[in-house]
Design goal:
The longest helix has 12 residues, at 36-47. This protein has helices at residues 36-47, 88-97, 103-107; strands at 20-26, 51-58, 77-84, 101-102. The chain has one domain. The chain is globular. By secondary structure, the protein is α+β, with helices and mostly antiparallel strands. The protein has a 4-stranded antiparallel beta sheet.
């Protein structure tokens, strides 16, 4: 059975549901539209946290010090999702074991050297990144 691809590179952020303010980035993860419910159910059942899928973003290439694209970079699929506020503490350790990062850490000045995401993703941050 064929699956529909998710909408990529939105022009605006997905609206967070009430109580979901901590956004996470799961780098190198891809899914199809018919797997969104499955993803949310997995986190609820296996890790005991509620999540809201936001979007799948394909990264832009890294850039060198002159702003030129670095070859053979970019094109990675990153899943963005939010964790319910009441579940953030429960999720803190399991997320690290899965390679999932808080968006604020991903976009922090010391970590974010190339603009691989559109500037709009900064609006997902719930605390200051710089």
């Amino acid at each position: 059975m064929a699956t529909k691809e998710l909408r990529l590179h939105s022009i605006e952020n997905v609206e967070l549901k009430e109580g979901f303010t901590q956004v996470c980035v799961w780098p190198g993860t891809t899914l199809n539209e018919d797997q969104i419910d499955e993803l949310e159910e997995y986190f609820k059942k296996e890790i005991k946290v509620r999540v809201q899928f936001l979007e799948l973003i394909i990264t832009k290439p890294d850039t060198d010090k002159y702003g030129d694209p670095v070859s053979e970079t970019g094109g990675r699929h990153d899943v963005f999702f939010a964790v319910h506020d009441e579940d953030v503490t429960t999720f803190a350790l399991p997320r690290m074991q899965m390679g999932i990062r808080w968006i604020e850490d991903v976009l922090a000045e010391g970590n974010y050297k190339s603009e691989i995401y559109d500037e709009r993703v900064r609006d997902y941050c719930s605390w200051k990144t710089n």
